[in-house]
Automatic annotation (TrEMBL):
Source superkingdom: Bacteria
Keywords, ordered alphabetically: FAD, Flavoprotein, Lyase
Organism, as annotated: Sphingomonas changnyeongensis
Protein's recorded name: Deoxyribodipyrimidine photolyase
Cofactor requirement: FAD
Gene3D superfamilies reported for this sequence: 1.25.40.80, DNA Cyclobutane Dipyrimidine Photolyase, subunit A, domain 3 (1.10.579.10)
Length: 394
């Protein structure tokens, strides 16, 4: 079981580092199914996503480990890590996509109550009773282990949308409820990508032959719709400017950290905080709340991060699950907050932190401005943008 600690994340990096080069590039698309004992400990993919999602370990550390061990042979692995930053930067600059997802999800949840046929199809899908062998197995894996291989996510999403003809937003919501790494940007934009809404007009088809080959013959799916028609939407999502960097923190401030910023690489602050407050409201990732394992991982991650904050600054710490608890813990001190990403975190906390000084992550600040269109620009320009942070991407 994945432990929500930085120590566990570092151990996973150390264990997987030898595979971050050619092995990963050659074998990453194969889904061998959950590993015995620890479902995430796969030989061919890192299983690092829950820790990266909560930033118990930073992308910079993972990229540095990969390039140190493998140099240019780590290119494929590094690119995948960059996808996370690409999606985060992209959503930050098109926040209306998140709003549209929330509205679409809530409308689809309402339709479930009004449409018995849709309700039956949805209930069968989320219970893993569709009769499509791989789909039903992945639903069981998702709800048991709270994690899926990337290829299984793509296939599942494609079958959900194009074979079962269910609203993509309900599938994305199911993932947010059950994934340990459930992340507004990677999840929403990946579902949109499969549907044909991210790269407009280009959808992802789950093909039976491809599934058979990359799952080692574990499945023989029947009846898949392979000739897929991309979804479309009327809404345009304008690009908005990224916020300007925050200034220096004030003496006696309360430092506000959230469950996506685990202090893996602590910021250099002009003044130490008087208190560190960890925001944690994982149940807000979905209207139905999240699975106990998901909530437990998020809470554990924040507790681990606060223990580190105590060691760093020797100040008291507190966990806040609501804006009222945040205000009570801050007790009128000036607030300095790690930037809240667009998504459930922003929805819950943005108003309470409206006057707070923003603390920025240098990696995000370097990468996000590149994420205005397709991934290619990030791939091309990341080496130069990240070089000042000591990352040698070739
Ligand atoms: C429909 C769908 C939903 C997804 N939802 C999420 C989500 O909620 N949270 C999430 O972190 N990832 C999501 N992904 C992306 C990807 O599937 C996971 O990040 C990856 O499977 C995690 O496994 P790993 O740690 O072994 O990755 P590795 O292959 O070992 O890659 C290393 C790290 O790079 C990042 N990464 C790798 N591939 C991607 C990718 N395609 N997009 C973004 N980041 C990537 C992850 O942080 C990952 O831990 C989704 C993909 C799809 C198709």
């Amino acid at each position: 079981m994945a432990e929500p600690t930085r120590a566990a994340a570092l151990a996973r990096i150390a264990a997987f580092a030898p595979a971050m080069g050619e092995l990963y590039a050659d074998r990453r698309n194969h889904d061998h199914g959950p590993a015995a004992g620890d479902a995430l400990a796969r030989p061919n993919v890192s299983g690092l996503s829950p820790w990266l999602r909560h930033r118990l370990v930073h992308e910079r550390e993972v990229i540095a480990a990969a390039t140190a061990d493998h140099g240019g042979a780590a290119e494929k692995f590094v690119q995948e890590v960059l996808w996370r930053g690409y999606f985060r930067g992209w959503l930050e600059q098109r926040p209306s996509v998140w709003r549209a997802y929330v509205e679409g999800r809530d409308a689809a949840l309402d339709r479930l109550n009004a449409n018995a046929g849709l309700r039956r199809a949805y209930d069968a899908a989320v219970a893993g009773r569709t009769g499509i062998d791989c789909f039903d197995a992945w639903i069981a894996e998702l709800t048991t282990h709270n994690w899926l291989h990337n290829h299984a996510r793509m296939w599942l999403a494609s079958i959900w949308i194009f074979t079962l003809r269910l609203p993509w937003e309900l599938g994305a919501d199911l993932f947010m409820r059950h994934l340990l790494d459930g992340d507004a940007a990677s999840n929403t934009l990946s579902w949109r990508w499969v549907a044909g809404l991210h790269t407009r007009g280009k959808a992802y088809a789950a093909r039976a032959e491809n599934i058979r080959r990359y799952t080692g013959g574990r499945f023989d799916p029947r009846g898949l719709v392979e000739d897929v028609e991309p979804l479309d939407e009327a809404a345009e999502h304008p690009l908005v400017a990224l916020p300007a960097p925050g200034g220096a923190v004030m003496p006696g401030h309360a430092l506000v950290v959230h469950d996506g910023e685990g202090l893996a690489l602590p910021p250099a602050l002009a003044h130490p905080p008087a208190i560190v407050i960890g925001l944690c409201a994982p149940d807000r990732r979905s209207p139905a709340g999240v699975a106990p394992a998901v909530a437990g991982f998020a809470r554990g991650a924040v507790a681990d991060m606060l223990a580190r904050a105590e060691g760093l600054w020797g100040c008291p710490t507190a966990i806040a699950a609501t804006p009222d608890e945040l205000h009570a813990a801050a007790a009128g001190r000036p607030l300095a907050a790690f930037r809240l990403p667009t998504g459930p975190e922003g929805d819950v906390w943005a108003a309470a932190l409206a006057g707070a000084l923003s603390v920025d992550d240098p990696y995000d600040r370097a990468l996000w401005p590149l994420a205005t269109a397709g991934f290619f620009k990030v791939k091309q320009k990341a080496p130069r943008a990240l070089a000042p942070l000591g990352l040698a991407l070739g």
